[in-house]
Each structure stands twice: as structure tokens, then as C-alpha cells.
Design goal:
This protein has helices at 19-34, 52-59, 92-104, 117-126, 155-164, 188-199; strands at residues 40-44, 49-50, 69-74, 82-91, 182-183, 214-216, 219-221. With 233 residues, it is an alpha+beta fold. Helix 1 packs across helix 3 (92-104) and helix 1 crosses helix 4.
């Protein structure tokens, strides 16, 4: 990582198996050193790509002085689900409550050795009445994505997502919001390509109110300016 980017390293917690221990230390550091500086805190894997403008627009609808947790929601392990660890964002108040729970109530939020920190975070917050909030657009399409689009070609994964996704799951590309915030399981090359397509390509004769077409039932079907799919006749 470039030296000019502020970062901390936990050399004794080097593997994914230590994710829960690491995220506790990360959020402890964030609260004790940054709590008054920021309203929202993003946690993302190193194979995730974030469209920051869409994230900023999304969280701008909410009050960070209230406890919020946003991300792709799964409906297992924790009652009312958990936000997937590929990328999730928590409000300043949710961070404060999590910090206090870690510090003062080890029975509610124990420090255990576990890789699935997203599940443990949701479990801790659920014990004080904080649950993942809805993170889909007005049409029910996902803004945070856990799987790479090509992974969705797997019938096993498709069935898994359909069964365990908190919101109704639709095949690609119908579950992808035009306001997508995060993509996951990307290679470094794919991240650079996504970035170039978003910020480097000049689009002629198309305004932001004219969405790109999407594939529908094997045909090219345009969207209305409101974002609804026009079904082929």
C-alpha cells in the first residue's frame, strides 16, 4: 500500500481466519481516533470495487446520528439477517454502540476466533436492537453485490442466493441497480477495467436520464427513464 495512504497493520492477525479479531481492532481504532471526523464508515474486501458517488448519494438520505448498517443482506445466522462482508457501511452512531458493546459487555459481544466477521458484527448489534437496513433501490434491485456476475451462472450459487438472500433475488442483470454501490470478487484487472469504463470512457449522445439497455429474456430490452424494464412483446 502507498505510504501516503493512512493504514494500520495487525501482523499477528494475518489471515482471513482472524477477520473477527481484526475488525474489532479496526473499529476500535476508528472510534477512538476518527469518531468526530466522519459520519459513515465503509468496510470493504480487497477484491471489491466501490462507486463512491453512489455510496455518498445513498447514505446522504440517512441520519448518521442514528444506528444504521447497510450492505447485501443475507437471511441466515442472525435473526433479521446480516450485511455481507464484501462491502458494508455503518453509521457513526452504530460504530459508537458497537464500540461500547465491545468495551463494556463481553458477554454480548465476545472476542472469538472466527473468519465470518460480518455475521459476528450483525449478531453483536442485534443484541442491542440494531439490524441491517434495506439497501435496495426503489425497484427492489440490489446496490451492494456479493458475487461476481459470472459466478451467477452456477446453478448451485443461484439456488443458494435465491434461498438465503433477504430480498427477492432476480437473475442477472435484473437484480443490478443503476445506483449500484459495490461489486465483489473482482480481479485487479477487472477493477481497473470497471474504473476506466466508469470514468475514462466518453459516452456520446446519451444523457444520464437515458439508461443503458439490459438483456431481458434473451432480447435487448430498453429501460424507461424511471428505470423500469420494458418487456419484449
Amino acid at each position: 500500500m502507498p505510504s501516503h495512504i493512512s493504514h494500520i497493520v495487525f501482523s499477528d492477525l494475518a489471515t482471513r481466519d482472524h477477520s473477527w479479531e481484526k475488525i474489532r481492532k479496526v473499529f476500535k481504532h476508528a472510534y477512538e481516533n476518527l469518531h468526530e471526523k466522519f459520519d459513515w464508515y465503509l468496510r470493504a474486501d480487497d477484491d471489491a470495487y466501490i462507486v463512491m458517488e453512489n455510496l455518498e448519494k445513498f447514505v446522504g438520505q440517512y441520519d448518521s446520528s442514528k444506528p444504521y448498517l447497510f450492505g447485501y443482506r443475507w437471511n441466515f445466522y442472525v435473526k433479521r439477517g446480516f450485511a455481507d462482508g464484501g462491502a458494508y457501511v455503518i453509521s457513526r452512531e452504530a460504530l459508537r454502540q458497537f464500540y461500547n458493546e465491545m468495551r463494556y459487555n463481553q458477554t454480548l459481544c465476545p472476542e472469538i476466533h472466527r473468519a465470518e466477521e460480518d455475521q459476528e458484527l450483525a449478531k453483536c448489534l442485534s443484541k442491542i436492537g440494531v439490524y441491517p437496513s434495506k439497501s435496495t433501490d426503489a425497484y427492489g434491485r440490489q446496490m451492494f453485490h456479493h458475487f461476481h456476475p459470472l459466478e451467477l451462472e452456477s446453478s448451485f450459487l443461484f439456488q443458494f442466493i435465491a434461498k438465503y438472500s433477504f430480498e427477492k433475488f432476480e437473475p442477472f442483470p435484473h437484480h443490478y441497480s443503476r445506483d449500484t454501490i459495490s461489486m465483489h470478487h473482482l480481479s485487479p484487472f477487472e477493477m481497473r477495467m470497471y474504473h476506466y469504463l466508469l470514468y475514462g470512457v466518453k459516452y456520446h449522445n446519451r444523457t444520464p436520464t437515458q439508461p443503458a439497455p439490459v438483456v431481458s429474456d434473451g432480447n435487448w430490452a430498453p429501460l424507461t427513464t424511471s428505470g423500469e424494464i420494458v418487456k419484449p412483446q
